[in-house]
Design a protein that fits this description.
Helix content: 10-25%
Number of domains: 2
Number of helices: 4
Distance between the termini: 28 Å
Shape: elongated
Order of helices and strands: HHHEEEEEEEEEEEEEEHEEEE
CATH class of the largest domain: Mainly Beta
CATH superfamily of the largest domain: Umud Fragment, subunit A
CATH architecture of the largest domain: Ribbon
Length: 306
């Protein structure tokens, strides 16, 4: 849907832009010339009504001239600066909740054209710990949001509900890094639930970026369903060049890179940076309100995303 909207926005901007240019450099001067000709053929001053009728553009031209600047601004803002998204699931709890509306920074990772999405200006690349929106590799029509765990060249192990990362060796390293566990500090285990299971909330840090995550310690890891990568253990992932390994913060309720592999760099949309609105949709089963009507606004959630 987002792709079709981008195409629609580009087409409308192009059409209204052509009309705007035609009016500015041809149609409007032609109308002014018509007014001069009409006035020269009359012995008395034309009435204001007559002048307006001669110089007034057609409805199509007038509408295009009025909306072109607005449409062009929206296209530039949405394509190259910031784009709004809604969080539709709980895979990024507790960082993001169902009902959160976020802004995605689209220039941090380079500028791309809004239709084909070819990068034409390099700015930067994701860092470990970034929350990113990307085109789902198995169906690019769908936007996913997850946290970057592994960068190109990294080796990642998710074993016994704990991450272990072996950072890619750089030419400047005198000794290549070894696997290091990502420390999880217990916060509580009575705040969130998944059905009948209590979820344990931890605090963790990736590349100096601290965030919270949820783990269901009462279930086993679904290792048999993990993405199969030749030459690695079932719970080990080697990130190819030009790709990223991502996971949801709600570890046991997230369809992420553990199950389908890696995100190509060209699939990246941008970095989620801000929650600008958050609605609560919780209601009792006997409520007469439609499910899409919010029951509350979670003002405390508004702000930056860790």
């Amino acid at each position: 849907m987002a792709v079709y909207f981008s195409i629609f926005l580009v087409v409308i901007t192009a059409l209204t832009g052509i009309v705007w240019l035609a009016d500015k450099f041809f149609l409007a001067p032609q109308r002014r010339m018509n007014l001069v000709d009409a006035q020269s053929q009359c012995s008395s001053e034309l009435t204001e009504e007559a002048k307006t009728k001669i110089t007034q553009p057609s409805a199509v031209v007038d509408t295009s001239v009025q909306i072109f600047p607005v449409i062009a601004f929206v296209l530039i803002l949405r394509s190259f600066l910031y784009e709004p998204f809604q969080i539709p699931s709980g895979s990024m709890m507790p960082t993001l909740l169902d009902g959160d509306f976020i802004l995605v920074n689209k220039f941090n990772y380079g500028l791309r054209d809004p239709v084909v999405r070819n990068k034409f200006f390099e700015i930067g690349l994701p860092e470990r710990g970034d929350v990113v929106v990307f085109k789902y590799p198995e169906d690019p029509q769908i936007d996913y949001i997850k946290r970057v765990i592994g960068l190109p060249g990294d080796r990642v192990i998710y074993r016994n509900k704990v991450l272990h990362i072996k950072v890619a060796c750089q030419e400047s390293d005198k000794k290549c890094p070894e696997f290091e566990p990502v420390v999880q500090n217990l916060i509580n285990n009575d705040e969130y639930r998944d059905g009948r299971y209590q979820l344990t909330r931890y605090s963790s840090t990736l590349s100096d970026r601290t965030h919270d995550l949820l783990v269901n310690n009462q279930t086993l890891s679904r290792t048999t369903h993990y993405y199969k990568q030749p030459g690695t253990e079932p719970d080990e992932f080697v990130v190819p060049q030009g790709h990223y390994f991502v996971m949801g913060d709600n570890r046991d309720n997230s369809l992420d890179g553990r199950f389908w592999g890696f995100v190509p760099e060209e699939n990246l949309v941008g970095e989620a940076v801000f929650i600008w609105m958050s609605f609560d949709f919780d209601r009792s089963q006997d409520s007469w309100l439609p499910h899409w009507i919010p029951t509350d606004v979670r003002f405390k959630r508004l702000g930056g995303i860790n």
